[in-house]
């Protein structure tokens, strides 16, 4: 996993814009200048940042199920992986894709261009670059999709010859945090156009295959004629999905990186809330920290073989 | 240079200013190096150290509440040996006060950790954690019984090698003056209050407590008015006459909050949960406290202590 | 018509639903007539009634805190006679349960108020307030001592004329199970918890407590996780086995909050501070609780009680 | 004081606009439709409403002294008197002038057109109409100015022959919540043009006379040749000022109404927080409620003669 860079800090960002896809998903664009821009120039896919939500307005038009759940006064920041990071003149743009599930995400979703938000980051260890020449297979579920998309996109940006394959799953079309899917377009011709192959699965079949994205990946891989030794997996999503991917990867002998999500208070390694239990090489139980040692881990470290 | 004299005498220590970071919320301080220059603070307090390393409780260990959060970390820490070997050398390079927070299951353990550390350079004093609500044996049971508090304090005190011993009180008692008094009778050089309030959050969909430990300790802005009250009680009833200083904490986020604790009777203050929202919170508090004194024409910060009308 | 059965049996009363408005936060209910149809609630609880009228504490009596507020009203009320003459006739026209909250300085006063009222029509039961932190004599001192609680409960109980007596517990004790048990042993038909937590806010500019009474009781969302914990403790340790129902309160603002208290062990819930932000809060809570049950497929609201895994 | 109307309720208002005068003062305009409009049609000057502040954004650019003070999570509403209320088609516009002193007022000051805010009102008892033919002298200090201005304006709107005189005081020009003063214009030709006389005083002389507005009023009255029996006073401001006005009024024999400000939790008479100690006719001590029995009281009721 890439080394944590040392330039993380607390920066004020400006909201450059937001785009809503239905009631559940929105994409937010932040501009960072000065030191913030310098820090985020060194950020890499799979890392994350802690976004201020205290003091942001709670939107008054929340959907019914969310009204009561979101009616709370937050004090902690909220962690988000990046959908993309890129320069904009001297500044840097940071994009996130946000699944609106509670008070913090609802408040973020209500941001408008020009609003100011404090961002603590970049934090953690992101996805490690693949070994030279290896193909990268991204497999992601739900809100795990953005960081994997970011990773694949950045690899292809850095090296146009990089071969990437992407598999995305979600409960339904409305839950899939991919802009083109929400816009009724085909991701293969849109944000995933750099991928050699893109496939999706939903629980209800409302987009892509009906079923699990891991199954879609497995049957594709079985027929793709790729040598496991030439491939690496990068995955993010719900833990049961990551466990399944890890098992498949271990079975096939493909190296896999998985990005985990834990409840985080601080995001910087001081509160000890985000533990990831691992076995040390001597078999001793040990806790790693998702925020500092992760969120991206080698699959063998966190999912016993 | 500010015209405000920020120096504080506290339990025999000379501090740069009254602001500390709280135990369990600043790790072993190196984790905060990128964000906060601890040398700008009066001092800091280590995560609780136990004789043996502790993995602590399973996850989830934290959950946010209205204006606060619960934690049930369970005193996860690297243990005495690794602390001495790995952390003390880094700590010694800092140029500010540090209290080592002591925890254990039995009095013997506290005594052993204190005596092993009291010989070490670079430690200013000890904080006796007898009030952690997240550990089943020991922990909170010590902290609610005055007789036990007196006993543990008087037994740990000789192991501190003359360094100040501060006793951290739990707020979850009927009469905090009694527990404070017990600590003073046991030989405490200072009192810190408050630790967290026992609380629970239930996930209504699964009908299960959110924390793996079921209950946790409430901290953050939500508890501030209760903590201020308890500090003022202990100051009036016990600490003032005994000449024992108080370190006040609970929900402090800015200079005005810190001033409130000092006016209530605290000589120093501690920043806990606020650090999670902003890693440099303690320095901001210290700046804010100085600005407050400037705007109020207060020349010596220590004049604030106990100045409640 | 909702498919959810909202009826609750509580201390012998048949209630429409589990939601009440809390003592001291809904006056004598007529003040809320313009905003809330109390007949849509399970019931409501009067402001504490004392034998003689009380002016209460001087102003300021309230101050807001992070996610909560302090009050030190000091049991201001119109007194027993005026209550009977002016308020009871209006109350009788309501078609829902009403508990009269009893307060006093001495046990005799409680007994007298209860016996005068127990003969009156239109009162469903009594709530014994032994836990108000804002009255100097009596008040909280009763509420922290199990022996006193048992004594007052057992002496007031016979004065209730067979109507249910609910005892309201203070959260500011080391072990709430002991005070709960004392109330049960004294003959309580139900327990309500929690009352407010003692707290203080200081104006840092004048260095004076904001409240004229210096301290006040903390209520509102800030206290919810502590209140949920205390309800679950009392349910598990005392109420469940004794078959004594709990009325849960502390920071409830919506249906999910209410569900949390019920899952923790409450049979009914009470809405206090939330009414100040929204006079029809209790009806909104009741609506939200019903919606929650619908979406979770819960057919009988009472099934929630104590269903914590 | 006018009867409390029975149509008070909780209504959603839309922000129609806001205007900032320096860092301390802003004017907010809200639109109420439907039932809200019906309720506020019956509102009268001196009454107030409770404005939601929870869930509103805390502006990120607060002036330094306010930053720490405003950094708090409110749960209660905030009471404001009206600067003006008038129809706008079927809807009603409610204007308030807001002195930015803490978290609630800071949040209100950050509202932008189109934002939604919940308003509970109209509440309390406002200024009673003067007896027929009586001249009305408004005397107000600081944030007490808006309701008195509203009262005088409404009287002249209802009866163009009504004679009004206005006296406004504040600490300094920057603290005077009168739009024209903030804009460097003369109130006598602006919002106070309906008054026969307008005079102002500030503690530092930065606007109007240097000194107390009560003194300005008294010396004017001494030379104005008005008969006390033909006049009534309507006042709002800090309590010491109201006490001084009451004493002068009692001495001169002018009927005076004073509008008080107390810390309020509920605003509707249930919490008993906003007490105004009065002596009953039998000399018994008694508490009235500022929110229900006031905020406007007869000066003799609340300030002993
Ligand atoms: C490293 C990392 C990267 C993330 N990246 C993204 C991303 O790119 N896009 C995105 O939409 N979300 C992402 N998340 C999840 C996001 O942080 C949470 O959805 C958010 O914190 C919820 O805040 P809230 O206030 O809306 O919900 P709350 O109101 O706090 O909680 C709503 C519900 O969600 C649960 N919950 C809250 N926080 C978490 C958490 N961290 N993990 C699991 N459950 C939680 C709560 O228990 C509760 O049931 C990431 C999380 C982590 C740790
Ligand atoms: C009937 C009535 C009418 C009012 N009309 C107006 C108006 O037209 N324009 C206007 O700007 N303000 C008006 N106010 C005052 C306004 O309600 C307060 O300034 C506001 O509630 C402060 O909220 P905050 O969150 O900004 O301050 P906070 O952060 O809550 O408090 C900041 C400081 O102000 C003090 N304070 C808070 N509320 C009050 C209060 N109600 N009375 C006295 N001190 C208080 C606090 O103790 C604290 O020191 C009125 C008040 C009342 C009772
Ligand atoms: C995540 C977390 C871990 C904590 N760990 C410890 C600990 O190890 N030892 C201890 O004495 N207190 C511990 N505390 C309590 C704090 O030191 C402090 O007493 C409490 O949080 C109140 O202060 P605050 O509101 O500023 O956070 C912990 C608090 C939190 C939030
Ligand atoms: C302004 C105010 C007045 C209160 N008066 C009483 C009272 O007279 N008697 C009583 O038993 N409790 C009284 N309480 C306590 C409430 O009934 C309730 O126990 C407490 O506020 C916690 O609930 P909440 O967080 O929903 O407000 C009062 C609370 C408030 C805020
Ligand atoms: S979130 Fe605090 S240690 Fe990871
Ligand atoms: S503000 Fe609640 S009674 Fe007046």
UniProtKB/TrEMBL annotation, chains A, D:
<protein>
    <submittedName>
        <fullName>Dihydroorotate oxidase B, electron transfer subunit</fullName>
    </submittedName>
</protein>
<dbReference type="InterPro" id="IPR039261">
    <property type="entry name" value="FNR_nucleotide-bd"/>
</dbReference>
<dbReference type="Pfam" id="PF10418">
    <property type="entry name" value="DHODB_Fe-S_bind"/>
</dbReference>
<dbReference type="InterPro" id="IPR017927">
    <property type="entry name" value="FAD-bd_FR_type"/>
</dbReference>
<dbReference type="InterPro" id="IPR001433">
    <property type="entry name" value="OxRdtase_FAD/NAD-bd"/>
</dbReference>
<dbReference type="Pfam" id="PF00175">
    <property type="entry name" value="NAD_binding_1"/>
</dbReference>
<dbReference type="GO" id="GO:0016491">
    <property type="term" value="F:oxidoreductase activity"/>
</dbReference>
<dbReference type="InterPro" id="IPR017938">
    <property type="entry name" value="Riboflavin_synthase-like_b-brl"/>
</dbReference>
<dbReference type="InterPro" id="IPR037117">
    <property type="entry name" value="Dihydroorotate_DH_ele_sf"/>
</dbReference>
<dbReference type="InterPro" id="IPR050353">
    <property type="entry name" value="PyrK_electron_transfer"/>
</dbReference>
<dbReference type="InterPro" id="IPR019480">
    <property type="entry name" value="Dihydroorotate_DH_Fe-S-bd"/>
</dbReference>
<feature type="domain" description="FAD-binding FR-type">
    <location>
        <begin position="8"/>
        <end position="129"/>
    </location>
</feature>
Automatic annotation (TrEMBL), chains B, C:
<feature type="binding site">
    <location>
        <position position="168"/>
    </location>
    <ligand>
        <name>FMN</name>
    </ligand>
</feature>
<feature type="binding site">
    <location>
        <begin position="195"/>
        <end position="196"/>
    </location>
    <ligand>
        <name>substrate</name>
    </ligand>
</feature>
<keyword id="KW-0665">Pyrimidine biosynthesis</keyword>
<feature type="binding site">
    <location>
        <begin position="250"/>
        <end position="251"/>
    </location>
    <ligand>
        <name>FMN</name>
    </ligand>
</feature>
<feature type="binding site">
    <location>
        <begin position="47"/>
        <end position="48"/>
    </location>
    <ligand>
        <name>FMN</name>
    </ligand>
</feature>
<feature type="binding site">
    <location>
        <position position="129"/>
    </location>
    <ligand>
        <name>FMN</name>
    </ligand>
</feature>
<feature type="binding site">
    <location>
        <position position="23"/>
    </location>
    <ligand>
        <name>FMN</name>
    </ligand>
</feature>
<protein>
    <recommendedName>
        <fullName>Dihydroorotate dehydrogenase</fullName>
        <ecNumber>1.3.-.-</ecNumber>
    </recommendedName>
</protein>
<dbReference type="GO" id="GO:0044205">
    <property type="term" value="P:'de novo' UMP biosynthetic process"/>
</dbReference>
<dbReference type="Pfam" id="PF01180">
    <property type="entry name" value="DHO_dh"/>
</dbReference>
<feature type="domain" description="Dihydroorotate dehydrogenase catalytic">
    <location>
        <begin position="8"/>
        <end position="291"/>
    </location>
</feature>
<dbReference type="InterPro" id="IPR005720">
    <property type="entry name" value="Dihydroorotate_DH_cat"/>
</dbReference>
<keyword id="KW-0560">Oxidoreductase</keyword>
<dbReference type="InterPro" id="IPR033888">
    <property type="entry name" value="DHOD_1B"/>
</dbReference>
<keyword id="KW-0285">Flavoprotein</keyword>
<feature type="binding site">
    <location>
        <position position="101"/>
    </location>
    <ligand>
        <name>FMN</name>
    </ligand>
</feature>
<feature type="binding site">
    <location>
        <position position="129"/>
    </location>
    <ligand>
        <name>substrate</name>
    </ligand>
</feature>
<dbReference type="InterPro" id="IPR024920">
    <property type="entry name" value="Dihydroorotate_DH_1"/>
</dbReference>
<comment type="similarity">
    <text>Belongs to the dihydroorotate dehydrogenase family. Type 1 subfamily.</text>
</comment>
<keyword id="KW-0288">FMN</keyword>
<feature type="binding site">
    <location>
        <position position="220"/>
    </location>
    <ligand>
        <name>FMN</name>
    </ligand>
</feature>
<dbReference type="GO" id="GO:0004152">
    <property type="term" value="F:dihydroorotate dehydrogenase activity"/>
</dbReference>
């Amino acid at each position: 996993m890439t080394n944590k860079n040392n330039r993380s800090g607390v920066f004020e960002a400006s909201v450059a814009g937001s785009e809503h896809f239905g009631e559940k998903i929105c994409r937010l664009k932040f501009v960072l200048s000065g030191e913030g821009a310098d820090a985020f120039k060194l950020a890499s896919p799979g890392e994350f940042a802690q976004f201020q939500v205290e003091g942001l307005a709670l939107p008054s038009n929340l959907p019914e199920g969310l009204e009561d759940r979101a009616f709370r006064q937050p004090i902690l920041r909220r962690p988000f992986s990046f959908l993309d990071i890129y320069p904009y003149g001297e500044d840097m743009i940071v994009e996130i894709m946000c699944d609106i599930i509670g008070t913090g995400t609802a408040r973020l979703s209500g941001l408008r261009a020009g609003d100011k938000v404090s961002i603590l980051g970049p934090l953690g260890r992101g996805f490690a670059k693949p070994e030279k020449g290896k193909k990268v297979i991204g497999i992601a579920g739900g809100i795990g999709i953005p960081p994997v998309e970011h990773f694949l996109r950045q690899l292809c940006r850095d090296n146009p010859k990089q071969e990437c394959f992407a598999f995305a799953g979600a409960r339904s079309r409305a839950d899939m945090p991919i802009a083109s899917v929400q816009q009724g377009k085909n991701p293969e011709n849109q944000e995933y156009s750099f991928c050699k192959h893109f496939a999706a699965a939903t629980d209800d079949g409302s987009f892509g295959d009906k079923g699990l994205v891991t199954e879609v990946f497995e049957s594709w891989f079985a027929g793709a004629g790729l040598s496991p030794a030439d491939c690496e997996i990068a995955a993010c999503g719900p833990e049961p999905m990551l466990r399944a991917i890890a098992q498949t990867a271990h079975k096939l002998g493909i190296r896999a990186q998985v990005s985990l999500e834990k409840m985080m208070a601080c995001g910087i390694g001081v509160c000890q809330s985000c533990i990831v239990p691992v076995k040390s090489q001597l078999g001793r139980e040990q806790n790693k920290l998702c925020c500092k040692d992760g969120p991206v881990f080698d699959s063998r470290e966190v999912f016993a073989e | 240079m500010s015209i405000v004299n920020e120096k504080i005498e506290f339990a025999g220590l000379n501090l740069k200013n009254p602001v500390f970071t709280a135990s369990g919320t600043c790790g072993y301080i190196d984790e905060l190096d990128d964000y906060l220059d601890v040398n700008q603070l009066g001092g800091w307090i280590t995560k609780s150290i136990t004789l043996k390393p502790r993995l602590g409780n399973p996850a989830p260990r934290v959950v946010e509440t209205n204006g606060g959060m619960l934690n049930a970390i369970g005193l996860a820490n690297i243990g005495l040996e690794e602390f001495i070997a790995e952390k003390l050398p880094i700590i010694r390079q800092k140029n500010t006060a540090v209290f080592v927070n002591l925890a254990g299951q039995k009095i013997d353990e506290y005594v052993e950790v204190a005596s092993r550390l009291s010989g070490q350079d670079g430690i200013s004093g000890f904080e006796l954690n007898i009030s952690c609500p997240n550990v089943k044996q020991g922990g909170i049971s010590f902290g609610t019984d005055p007789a036990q508090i007196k006993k543990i304090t008087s037994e740990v005190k000789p192991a501190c090698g003359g360094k100040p011993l501060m006793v951290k009180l739990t707020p979850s008692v009927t009469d905090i003056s009694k527990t404070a008094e017990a600590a003073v009778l046991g030989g405490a050089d200072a009192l810190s209050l408050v630790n967290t309030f026992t609380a629970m959050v239930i996930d209504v969909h699964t009908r299960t407590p959110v924390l793996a430990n079921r209950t946790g300790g409430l901290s953050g802005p939500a508890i501030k008015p209760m903590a201020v009250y308890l500090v003022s009680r202990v100051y009036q009833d016990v600490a003032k006459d005994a000449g024992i200083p108080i370190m006040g904490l609970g929900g402090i986020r800015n200079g005005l909050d810190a001033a409130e604790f000092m006016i209530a009777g605290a000589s120093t203050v501690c920043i806990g949960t606020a650090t999670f929202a902003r890693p440099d919170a303690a320095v901001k508090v210290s700046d804010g406290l100085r600005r407050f004194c400037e705007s109020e024409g207060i020349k010596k910060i220590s004049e604030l202590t106990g100045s409640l009308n």
